[in-house]
Structure formats: C-alpha cells, structure tokens
Amino acid sequence: MIEQFALAIANIDWPKDKLEVILLLEEDDPQTINKAYGLKLPDYFRIEIVPNSLPKTKPKACNWGLQIASGEYVVVYDAEDKPDPLQLKKAYLAFKRSDKRVICLQSKLNYYNQNQNLLTRIFTAEYSYWFDIALPGLQTLNTIIPLGGTSNHFVTDILKKLGGWDPFNVTEDCDLGTRLFKQGYRTSIIDSETLEEANSNLKSWIRQRSRWIKGYMQTYLVHMRNPWEFFKKHKVHALLFQLIIGMRMVFMIINPILWLTTILYFTAYPIFGPFIESLYPWYVFYPAVFCLIFANFTYFYSYMIASAKKGKWELIGYIFAIPFYWVLTSVSAVIALYQLITKPYYWEKTKHGLHLETQTRKSKWLVFPKISIEPVFEWPKFNLFSKYFGRFVGGVANLMRNLLKDRSVMEIFANASENLNIRKTSSQYGLLGSVGKFLKSNLQRVVIGGGLLVSANIFANFTNYLYNAVLGRSLSYEDFGWTSLISNLNLFLGVVTASLGLTVTYKSAILLGRRGGIKKDFWRVTRKNIFNIFFPIGIAVLLLSHYFTGGTSEANEVSAVLVAVVLMLPVSAVASVDGGFLSGNLKFAPLAFLVVLLPVVKFLSGYIGIVIGNINIIFFSQAIATVITFFVGWVIIVKLPKQKTTRGVKESIKFPKKFYLTSVMNRFSLAFFLSADVILAKFFLSAGDAGKYAILSLIGKSIFFFGSLVTQFITPVVSKEIGEGKEGLRSFYKLFFLTLLATSFAFVVLGVFPQKFAVLMFGNKVYEISSFVFKYALAISAFTIAYTISLFHQTKKQYLFSYLGFLLSAFEVLYILLYHGNIHEIVESIYQVSISYLLASSVLHIVTVKNTALKVNLLSLAKLFLKTKISKPVKGKANILIYNWRDTKHKWQGGAEVYVQEIAQRFVKKGYGVTVFCGNDGALKYDETVGGVKIVRRGGFFTLYFWAAVYYLLKFRSNFDFIIDCENGIPFYTPLYSTLPKILLIHHVHQQVFRENLPFPLKNIAVFLESDVMKSVYRDVKIVTVSQSSRNDILELGLNTNGEIDIISPGVNMRSYSRLKKFDYPTFCYLGRLMPYKNVDVLIRSFKNVVSEINNAKLIIAGKGQSEESLKILSEKLGLSKNVEFRGYVTDLEKKEILSRSWVMVQPSSFEGWGITVIEANASHTPVIASNTAGLRDSRLSENAYAWSRNFSWNSAVYRFINIIDNEIEDQQKSAVPAYSYSET
Question: Where is the Glycosyl transferase family domain (predicted)?
C-alpha cells in the first residue's frame, strides 16, 4: 500500500517545496519500515518511527507526528488513501475565505473498490450518505460534526492548543470533532473527495466497525461527565449530540430485539401476540407501525439519494439488501459494548489491500483490459449463498436500478422539489457541497420529487387509516357505520370534484408539454367558472336540507350527514382545480404538502370530537379539513412564480369536456367499486353486519390506495409527453409495473395474511370477517390494475375503456341489488365483476396497443386455426423448413439472420422450397415472402420455441422433407418431435455469454440446455458451423464426438466494397447488434479517453438492440453526446459508407463465432481494433481471412449445403422405408 500512497501524494497539485509528508511507522513493524526505506521516497517525504508503547493506537501516532510538524496547516491521511489532487489547494482557499472559527475542514470520503462485493457496495452507499448528506446537513445547523478518520485539515497551532488527539480513544476523530466544537471552533465540509479502500472481508469489517462504535461510546461517556453543564452551555447542540452520538449507539444494540419482537408478533401471534400486547397499551402500535414504515423508508431513500448524487446509479438496487447490513452493524455494536468493558483501548487493526488480491484473480484482455464482466452480485465469503440467493437479489436490484435510471419514468419527478424552501449552507464559509445546493441540483430534483409525493400519499393514507382505526375502536358499530357512510358519500362527491382535478391535470400537462413552461390562464378561467357553477348549487342544497329533518334521532343524523357533505361541494370543486393545476405542471412538492394537510386536519378534528364526545364534530371533520386545505392551496398557486414558455405553440385553453365526462365515468366506476357496496350494505344488512362490511371495505380501500401511489402519475406524465409529441407508452409500462408491484404487495399483506397484518391495522374485529378478506382483496386488486389501464387510454383519447368500466360498475350495483342477503353474496358480486373488468381491459389493451408479447402469442394461437402459407418446391426438389430465432426484418437481427436469408434465397433459386419459422417482434407481418422465402413469424422472445413444436406437429409435419435447426444460444430440439433428416447449424457456442450475462437461475438453465441436453438430443445429427474456432468450441463441449463438423463460413462480395475518402476528423465506428456481450459500453468508456486528447473525435454506432437505451444514457453521462452518434439501423449502402469513410472500426465483443464485420471493414480499406477472441481471430488478415474472402461466393456455400442435404436424405432413405419420392440433383 505504501507505493500506492506515495504515488497518490505525488499526484497532489501543491508546490513540493512547501510540502512536508511525515510517514508514521510503528517501531515493531520492521517489514513496513524496510519497505519504506527501500522505495527511495522523494525529498519531501519524512519517515518517523513511533516508539513502541501503550496505547498502540492511531491517535497516539498522530500526536507524535503533530509535535514535529512544521507547516501552518496539517492534514491526516491513511495509507490506502487516494486524495483529490486539488484537495490541498481547495483546503487552503477554504481556510482563507472562512470564518476564523473554522479550524477544521473535512473532505468527503468514498471508496475506489465499491464493486468488489455486496459489502463494499453497501459500504460505499453508506459513506455517500454520511459525507454527502448527513455531515453537510449538520454543517448547516452549525453543530457538532463527528470527523472522518482521514482527510481532516487543521490549523496546526490551534490543534496543538486543543491537545491533539485523545490517544486512548479508538475513534479519535469523533472525539476531536466534539472537543473543538465545545471550545467554540467549527468544522466545515469541503467539496473534495478522498478515495479509500472499502473493507471487503466480513470478519475484518466487523472488527473495524466494532472499533468505530466502541470509540463513539467512549466519546459519549467522556463528554457526558457533566451533562447539566453540557446542556446549559450548548442547549440544542447537546440534544443533537445525544441523537447523533449517544442514541445512535443505543439503537444499534436494541434494534435486533425490536425486530425480533415485531417478527414474532406477526408470524407467531397465537403464541407471542397476547404477551407482547400486554406490554404496551393499544395506541402504541400505531406509532410503532408508523416508525416501521417511514423510518426504514427514509433510511433507504436517503441512501438512494446519496448514491444518485454521486452518480453511483449501479448501487441503488443493492440498497434493498441493507437490512442484512444493519444486522451486522448490531453484531458489531454488541462486540463493541463487550470490549468497552473488557479492553476499552484495544485498537482492532484493519487489513488493507484486499482489493488488490481480487484484481490479481481477474482475467485480462489483450486489447481492452476492462472488457471482462464482473459478477452482478457477490456476498463476501459466502460463495454458496452468493451463487443461489445473491444472483436472484442481483437481478431484482438491476431491474430496480434500470427503473430508477430510466428517464421516461424519472421524468415524473423532474420539477417536484422546485418549490421546496431548502435552507442553504451559510455563505460565510464559502464552501461547496452543502445540502441546500445538493437538493437544488437537477439530479436530485429528478430523484426526490416523485418520492416526496409518494411519501406524502403514504403518510396521508396512513393518517386516514389511523382516523378510521381510532373511530373503529372508539365508536359503536352504528356510529362507525354513519361515519363510514359520510366517507363513502365523499367518494361520490369525488365523482364530480376529482374528475375536475384529473381533467385540469390532463389539460395543464398538455399545455406544459406544448408550451414548455407554465402559464396560469387556463387555471384562472377554469377556477372562476367552476366556482360560479358550484357555489349556487351548494347554497341551494343547504337551504333545502331542513326538509330532511323530521325530529327523530335517525332523521337528525341523516340531516347532519347531508349538511357535512354539501358544505364541501363548492369548496372541494375549486380545490380540485388547484390540485389538478399543480399536478399537471409537475409541482409535486406543494401538492404533497396539501395531500398531507387534508388528512392531518381531519384526524385532529375527529380526535377532538372523540375526546369531547361530540359526534357532530366527527361528522364535520372532513368539511373542516377541506376548507383549510382549499385556502392553503389557493395561496400556494397565487405565489407560484410565472415561467417563460420555451415553445411558441398556440394552444386553446378550452375546457376538455369529453375528457371530463369520461373522468366522471371513471370516478363513478371508482365510487361504485369502492363505495356503492358499503352504502347498499348499510341499507340491506343489519347494523352489525353493515359495520363489519365497512371494515372489510377499509381493507379493500387500503389495497387500492397503495396501488394508486403510482397511478396518480399516469395522467400528468403521459399527457405531458403527448403534449411534446411523444407516444407515452413506455412511461406507462414503467408506471404500470410499479403499480402492479405495489398492489401485489398490499394484496399479499392484507389479503393473504389478514389475521397477521390486518388485525394490527383494524383491530380484532377483522377476525369476524377473515373468511371474506381474501376474495374481496383479490377483487379490489383486479379493479386497481384495470383502472390503471383505463387511465392511460383516457389520456390517449381512447374512451372505450372508460365506457367499459362505467358499464361494469353499474352492473355491479345491479348485481348487489339482486343478491344482498348477506356479506358473502355482496363479496361474490364484487369479485365476479372485478375479475371480468380486468380480463376485458387486458384484452382491449392488447388489441389497442401494438408490439406486445401477449398480443403476439394470442395471435399465434389464433393463426393456428387458420391456413398457413408454406413454401412449395419444384418437382423433384426438397421442401426445407428452417428454424431460426429471428429473420432479417426483426429489430434485433444480426449476421446470423443475414447468413440464413442468403442461403435460403439461393435454395429457392435452385428450385427448393424454403420456409423460415422465426419469432415476431410485434411490429412485423405474421406471414410474408422475402426473396422467394416464406417467412412464418410466431411467438416472442422465448415462446417461439413452444410454437415451433406446436406448429410442426399440427401444421408442418407432412409438408417438408428436411429441417435446418439453427442454434442461437438454444436450439429448437427438433429431434424430439420430428424424424425428418436435419442439420444443426451453430454459429458459435454461448456458454461464456450465458455465464457472464444471465442472472441465476437463467444462466444455469441455459448452460445446461446448450451442453448436456443438446449433447443428448443431437447426438446423431449432422452439425454445420461457420468457423474453425466455433468447430473447436463445439468439439470441446462434446456435441459431436466423431468430429465430423462441416465449416461453411459466411463472406462478403468484395466487388461491392470500394475505397472512399475518409472523414476529415478522426472517426471510429462500430457495426452490429447492441447487446450486453458486445461490450459497446467498454468502447464508449474507452472513447472518453480518446476525446480527452482529441476533442473532435467521433464514434459512429450503427445497430440496434436491447442495450441501446442504456448506452445512450452512458454516453450522456460521460459528456459524449456530441461525440457519439447512434445511427440505429442503416441500409446496406449506408453501412458500406460508414465502414469505408471511418478511420478505424472497433469490434469489442467478448464472444463471436465469425467476424464478418471485420472482413467488411478490411474490404473497405479500414483497419480494425478487435477483442482477442477466437471468432474474431479467425477473421484477421493474418489468418488469411481476407484472401479467402476474395474467392468467396454465396453460391459455393449453397452447393456445399446441398451436398450435405442430399447425403443426409440419402442416408435416411437407405436406413428406413422412404416416406416420399425424391430424385437426386
């Protein structure tokens, strides 16, 4: 590590004649001492030997060095550190510009080996949070900052006056940060980073973490010797010290106990539930659930924000594994507490250099050193666990990471935190890296805005649940039935008001997309018109309401309910316009505040009503909350600053009436599905059963509200994209996936395990309705998903979905009117209608939206019953069936598809019949003729293999004479269902591709299918491949033990390539599919270095594939948008021009069967830089590929195929009774 440290210090941009580096070495470490003297360090290095004495700690060594330091400033580095080269200059300028009280500057710390394993990834996320969010946040409060163990810059004289470091404290940095604060000095964070080595060994990590925690405990005990004086002098800062230093350590120890209690309560309630409940009063469980949800969510979210700010998007998915990390932290805390008693000053040494051991085990590539792919997920020292569980979690992590990185989804969060009033770091320090600046950066606005609104909705739903739960526990069934009736009548009121809000959201988002900025003209006109309509209606209904009072108790309650609802009508309508305007303009922060304000006021009003025993206050709690929220929202929009529109598009501000009418239909559907059953149950069932059904309804509403946390973004996001001229389909699919995930989670928690979770939320009354919960929860889940589909198509002006939902909801009411004898009959009605709604919506969506896998497979099934056009050979020739994964028109077509098409077309010219059976990407015809070849496209990415067998057995079996089975990773296993003679065509073996690119268990399945299964199924089948390297791989895999493998290579027509003038600027090109194993990302990262030297260099990437979007994001992230050009699919002429005019072609693929593009580039007089892989080596000039290609023709390749086909057919005829008459050619 000393060489690395010396190099890092040498790279620091600071005059070396003004630099003194004191290398502190322990006297009893002769190996390191000899190594240091043997390096011949520069003159500014000074080796000091620290005497061997107790305590053997780092702070003791630092004090030794401090006494001999001669500089005005002193900084501490660890041996493994790699500081920012400009760090000393930044620190010097910061000291000069800062307040004199600032005597310490803490640089931000992070790690350079973050991707070594899971432990280092979470460790890096933790450090990103601590040094980029937590410490800058503490700085804004001008409070105690526990220092990091390295990269602390001090004013030397003041540090000596403070006595340096406490030699007995094993976390000396935390103690020193506290002491300097108590002496009136301050610490600030500078925008400079030092990279360290993250501890990658689990045992070593626990030792290191236990030392840190023990030091925090020591610091707390030392500085709390006189707590009264501490609190009296430092006031709120003393309280922060308790939270940051003291209670943090306490919770690390008791956290496992709390977790164990919670797990036992939920999983073993009959045994432990009553005992745990006896320890706490019932109301304690509500804040407990709140903390369980929000505290953990906040922690997860903070880690994600920190990782996003650092640009470490790849870490976000792994943060979901952090509960395991917390358990290890608690283990370390227990060890720390034990050592605090038994050996308080013992310094647990940390082993460094572990990442170097890992690097030596990695394979190296000759051309691209970074081309090897690291494992997606690895647990430290738990290889077996990593192999099975780690890959699964890694796959989920990658999926979540891609969702977070996907810009179409993240667009919904883009302007969310714009109106947050974040306090900036005090400008008197003149330092970068403050929390205020961090939260106001564009990147963080993307990440936190949508989460802010989602969090607000979670809080609002939780508060609503708490409101209903408290009422449910405090009121009788009859009174709770009336309050539930008011809530459900409010939902019917939402048919009008929420429809208004959604319509305003839609129109505002359309205007935002088309104008590129916010104007209030539509909001102002709409708000005025709505108030003029609904205010007179509300007054009229109030004047007529006394007719409903007949003097009886029942009549008085009905009148109170009516007045409570009518009061909200005009106010709710206008407030909905305000909320819709904020949502449509993506102003999620103020909208989140309003979302929280409404239920909080309602809960407080209801609680006051319970305390004083006034049922009318409970009835009017919703109205009170609505009025207050209305005025607050009005003020927010009035204060909203105007924006300049960036697009000069004239757009009508006319109210979209048809959208509003369909919104009313959707809201009626929502009200009918979620509330009509409760209202009807109130009138048809007994008071007791109606109350039970009300609780059942609350469970269903909880599921719907949980799913709607994401659904709320569909209208503003998709409408804005439509306004910008986009389709919006991709954003919908991402949001739909998240909705499905949220709804499924809620269904499992509340519907599958009601006696464990629903009981906690709604009390013991759930036991009486537990037999109905599963089916009712499933019904509401189905409705939630179907409703999400309807919202999307409404923004596309496809209103059939709204009509469908409205008709089915009306049918549900009719169904309940006919069958309402008991709770079971009502639940059954809801269930049947909801499932029907989901099925009908799904089918309509498939029919309406193109390019869906489900649509492809349904049509493949339907076409099974129709006539399929297949090829017909001339008399005396064979009819050939070719199975291939794709064809040349598929969006992911490549060289293998060109090879098959070239051969097939020449078969046809010679009189053979050829039908190619392949997959459909959803945008292609299902039956087509290309160059005389019949193309039958059925199935999708994976289902193609299923349809291949089905179509052969039911339609093709008696129509063909020969099969060419093309293996593209996995063959079609035609010997299992066909006895026809056949050829297995293999372009290259995919074992390495599977192992490096597929997650567990897919990679294991694929490897097994291509090796063991394929070896058995194709043991007697003739094999053809395209190169000698592929032949060697096939033999090594044991697919053909007799070694009879024919090589029929593809080639190029040399006469069609010419030499063109090269581009005026250095131009590199890549031609091929954009797949993970092609390693185009490695090319782009390497090209970054080229651009740093030659700023006008250009990289042309021609091709498409599943990695295209991520590669575009990568090029933007690296600042290469102007240098990297994505051409997509190119014509043959465009391809030849690119190859000929480029200066260099690059082929970085990790695996290829045959480098056809290499030959094409060489034919165009363009040199090639290629990976040192077998297939690409075959196509090099030194392997005579160029000379061979000059004599290549597709006709000669076809003749070789014909000879093989004839021989195979003849062999089968000799060994069996011929099934057909065939004459040789």
Answer: 1064-1210
